[in-house]
Write a structure and sequence with these properties.
transmembrane, YggT family protein, CCB3/YggT, 0% strand, membrane, 6 helices, mainly alpha, 79% helix, single chain, transmembrane helix, 191 residues
Length: 191
């Protein structure tokens, strides 16, 4: 039981840090202003990881890899902790196990990115109805807009109601199902 509690706490801490790093990565990639509450929160929570890594990990084509790389490594570290607590799989050498952990870590980052987008789209849609002048609305809209725009070109508003968030949320659920299948296919190799 204590083992389960320990792993739950590790998962919670790693997930919050990973989502924060992903938010920072996407906000910089999409050139979203950090001069708001969300930007300040993300910056303060992730500076201790990102700033030292900027000296070592270069940017690539405008992508801030010093935010993305630690997100992947954190997820791989969480998997390493799970393997450490539950025991290493028999017959797998350390190099192969490390490669599998990094692959699953990358898959987890992709999954968390999809969940982050689901939350952003859902929150932006709710705020557009409930509180369109919220200080958080421009940030959420800036993060969601690049994903909604292609759908809005295909499906025009009906009676002035934009259905693109619903379509995007449905597509993201399908992506999550596919990610789950890929992850499940890797787990037998690991355990």
């Amino acid at each position: 039981m204590l083992d389960t509690i320990f792993l739950m706490i590790v998962n919670a801490v790693v997930s919050v840090l990973t989502i924060t790093l992903l938010l920072r990565f996407y906000m910089q990639w999409m050139r979203v202003s950090f001069r708001n509450q969300l930007g300040a929160f993300v910056t303060q929570l992730s500076d201790w990881v990102v700033l030292p890594l900027r000296r070592v990990v270069p940017s690539l084509g405008g992508l801030d890899l010093s935010s993305l790389v630690p997100a992947i490594l954190l997820q791989a570290l969480e998997i390493a902790i799970v393997v450490w607590r539950r025991g290493s799989p028999a017959g797998i050498d350390a190099v192969r196990l490390g490669a599998i952990m990094l692959a699953v870590g990358l898959i987890e980052v992709i999954k968390l990115s999809v969940w982050l987008l689901i939350i952003v789209v859902f929150a932006a849609a709710i705020l557009s109805w409930v509180s369109p002048h919220s200080p958080l609305a421009p940030t959420l809209n800036s993060l969601a807009r690049p994903f909604l725009r292609p759908i809005q070109k295909l499906i025009p508003p009906i009676a002035n109601i934009d259905l693109s968030p619903l379509v995007l949320l449905l597509l993201l659920q399908i992506v999550l199902m596919l990610i789950g299948q890929v992850r499940v296919s890797l787990l037998p190799v690991m355990f």
